[in-house]
Every structure is written in structure tokens, then in C-alpha cells.
Specification:
Structural class: alpha/beta
CATH superfamily of the largest domain: Aldolase class I
Shape: globular
Radius of gyration: 21 Å
Helix content: 40-55%
Distance between the termini: 28 Å
CATH topology of the largest domain: TIM Barrel
Bound molecules: iron/sulfur cluster
Number of helices: 15
Oligomer: single chain
Number of domains: 2
Largest sheet: 9 strands, mixed
CATH class of the largest domain: Alpha Beta
Number of strands: 15
Length: 374
């Protein structure tokens, strides 16, 4: 992407905290929605000299933000200088949006929705602490189609407690029957600090064993390929030309701006992080204090590592030429031994200037990628 940068906007509110979630999101803070939106507007208004090519409003549950809140940030978003082919995504959960909200999204230029479903079985949704049923998901999905959203992602998860391979197959079959343009399929990771972690710690989380989980992933690849979804990243699949441009910015180590609590930015070789605490974020903005809590200059070593392990997440991997040009050195001088090792184990391939993981390499990508840390 040469003619603009990406913008991420964080909405930290959720109706209920999912049991597996370690994102900076909160429930029971609805009374702060309006003051948060005002603060957010102020921060967005400061973006003056940048052309924006993608906007991703994530969270949290952005669709849970009240209409009043949306109306508050609306004008600031409309004022942004955007490219003609802007990709503008809003993330949401079933049951948290109405036609009114969707029409407002259309009005401010949103052209992509990302809806969290996770599983097709209500007992799994309940066990995950999700706020919705499959029926509510269907209602929300059809509503979005009716309002005219032609680019929809659905988030799914596999490797859930008590989940069978059959149930995962059923999830994929039912979801692909709806023909969304994009699918994200992540395996559940039990993160420290979550309710699931406590259960796991007490041996009360009955997760599928590793072989079943691997089988679930293999089935995903094969089934989605047969159904015209092409895999372009370890966990992401799209119909022709419907890859998420915003996420590709992260994987390509390109620049992005972040607004809102806990939002990150990567500009001019610096990484910035805003305060996570909602009250602090609001009071900083009210008092004219920068919400940025941390600012670090990435060293060349950091950039090289990130270039490799973000880039290798993509199925077509990284361009060796781009690496050589960006770092003014040969990739083999830096990573020669690691490359040799994994090529000889058939986990990594170099072909026509691209370096990428083989299907087996993708399966154990965490191990391979950790070797690219210098
Ligand atoms: S809806 Fe998303 S952000 Fe909110 S608690 Fe659940 S997983 Fe976390």
C-alpha cells in the first residue's frame, strides 16, 4: 500500500466478558460510552496530515457502542482524508446492532463488517461466555446483507472445550453455506488472566487433544479450498480479492495509526501505545494530555524480526528482495543458518524471490518463527 496508511480505532466496551478473552475490553462500563466517544473524537481530529487507506474499528464490541456514541465520533471519521478505495471495517457481535446502526455505518463509509460467531452450537457459545445464540447470529447476518453489506467476515474458533471434530465440520459447513466473503479461523489459546485459564489450571477445561486439533486445522484448509476460499494467512481465508487489506498492513510491517484506549501505532519506525485504562484515557483527552503511554524506537533488529515473523504468517511469505532492500543487507547474512535448517527439513521454501512456510511449516509455525528472533 503506497498511497495511504492504516487507522485502527479501539472501542473497549463489551456487553459481557467472554471467558477466553484477554483483549483490553470491559463490561459494565456503559456509563462511560459517551465521554469515551468524545475523547476519541478529539484524538481522531488530530489526524491531519495523513491520508487513510484502511480503517478498522475493533474492540471490544464496536457495535455495542450506543447510537449516541457513534453519532459523536461520526463527524470526526467523516472529516478524515481517505483514499478512493478505502477499506472500512467495523467489528461487531450478534445482537448488538440494529438496522439504524448499520445505516449509520453505511452513511460514514463502512464497507466491511466483521461478525464474531465462533461456533455453530449454542452449548459451545454458552460455554465460551458469548452473549448470543446461533439464531441471533443469523438474524444479524441477514440484517447486514439486507442493509447492503457485501463484504462480511465471520470469526470462528476451533479447539474449544468439549468440541468434537464433527462439530467443527458442522460449523464450517453451515457458515460457508451463508457465503461470507471472508473467514477467520483461530485455534483457541488459553491466555493467562482469563476465566478459562483458571479452569485450565484446575484441570477443569476439557480441551480436544493435539491430534484432534491438528485434524480440525487440516480439515479447515481442505474444506475451505474446496469451497473457493483461498488461504492467504495462517488463520485467514477469503473469496477472490476479498483479503483484509487492513490486516495485511500489520503482516507487511507497514505503518498504522491507532486511536482509543490501548491502541498501538507504528509510525516512522516508532511504536506507540495509548493508555489502556478508560478513565485515564478520557481524562487525558479532557485535560489536553497525550494518551500515549509508551513510545519506543524499533531497532533494526526489531524490524528484521518483525518483518520475518509477521511476514511468514502470510501464505506467500516474504519477499527476499524487499528484505535486502529495506535492511541494506542480504537476508542470508542475517538468517542464513536458520533458513538452511528449515529448508532442509522441508518446512520453508524459497521460490522466485518469495520465502514461505510449507504446509507442514505452517502447522508448527510457532516453533519455526521463534527461530527468527535474533
Ligand atoms: S466480545 Fe470479543 S472483545 Fe468482547 S469479551 Fe468477547 S472476545 Fe473479548
Amino acid at each position: 500500500m503506497n498511497d495511504g496508511i492504516a487507522l485502527y480505532i479501539h472501542i473497549p466496551f463489551c456487553k459481557q466478558k467472554c471467558l477466553y478473552c484477554d483483549f483490553p475490553s470491559y463490561c459494565g462500563e456503559e456509563n462511560k460510552m459517551l465521554s469515551y466517544s468524545k475523547a476519541l473524537s478529539k484524538e481522531i481530529n488530530r489526524i491531519k496530515d495523513k491520508k487513510i487507506s484502511t480503517i478498522f474499528i475493533g474492540g471490544g464490541t464496536p457495535t455495542y457502542l450506543s447510537l449516541e456514541g457513534w453519532n459523536t465520533i461520526k463527524e470526526s471519521i467523516k472529516r478524515l482524508n481517505t483514499t478512493d478505495d478505502l477499506e472500512f471495517t467495523v467489528e461487531g457481535n450478534p445482537g448488538t446492532f440494529s438496522e439504524d446502526k448499520l445505516l449509520l455505518f453505511k452513511n460514514i463509509g463502512v464497507n466491511r463488517l466483521s461478525i464474531g460467531l465462533q461456533a455453530w452450537q449454542n452449548e459451545h457459545l454458552k460455554r465460551l461466555g458469548r452473549i448470543h445464540s446461533v439464531e441471533e447470529f443469523l438474524e444479524s447476518f441477514y440484517m447486514a446483507r439486507k442493509v447492503g453489506f457485501e463484504n462480511i467476515n465471520i470469526d470462528l474458533m476451533f479447539g474449544l472445550p468439549e468440541q468434537s471434530l464433527e462439530e467443527w465440520k458442522q460449523t464450517l459447513e453451515n457458515v460457508t453455506n451463508l457465503e461470507p466473503e471472508h473467514l477467520s479461523c483461530y485455534s483457541l489459546i488459553v491466555e493467562e488472566g482469563t476465566r478459562f485459564y483458571d479452569l485450565y489450571d484446575k484441570d477443569k477445561l476439557n480441551l480436544p487433544d493435539e491430534d484432534i486439533e491438528r485434524e480440525m486445522y487440516r480439515f479447515t484448509l481442505q474444506y475451505l479450498k474446496e469451497n473457493q476460499y483461498h488461504q492467504y494467512e495462517i488463520s485467514n481465508f477469503s473469496k477472490h480479492n476479498r483479503e483484509c487489506k487492513h490486516n495485511l498492513v500489520y503482516w507487511n510491517l507497514e505503518e498504522y495509526l491507532g486511536c482509543g484506549s490501548a491502541a498501538h501505532s507504528y509510525i516512522d519506525g516508532y511504536r506507540f501505545r495509548n493508555v489502556q485504562n478508560i478513565d485515564k484515557y478520557i481524562s487525558n483527552e479532557v485535560n489536553g494530555i497525550s494518551p500515549v503511554e509508551e513510545k519506543n524506537k524499533n531497532s533494526e533488529k526489531d524490524d528484521m524480526e518483525e518483518f520475518m515473523f509477521m511476514g511468514l504468517r502470510k501464505i506467500d511469505g516474504i519477499s527476499t528482495k524487499k528484505f535486502n532492500k529495506k535492511f541494506r543487507t542480504s537476508i542470508y547474512d542475517i538468517y542464513g543458518d536458520v533458513i538452511k535448517k528449515y529448508v532442509s527439513q522441508n518446512l520453508l521454501v524459497e521460490k522466485e524471490g518469495q520465502m514461505f512456510l510449507t504446509p507442514r511449516g505452517v502447522e508448527i509455525s510457532n516453533t519455526v518463527m521463534s527461530d527468527f528472533i535474533l
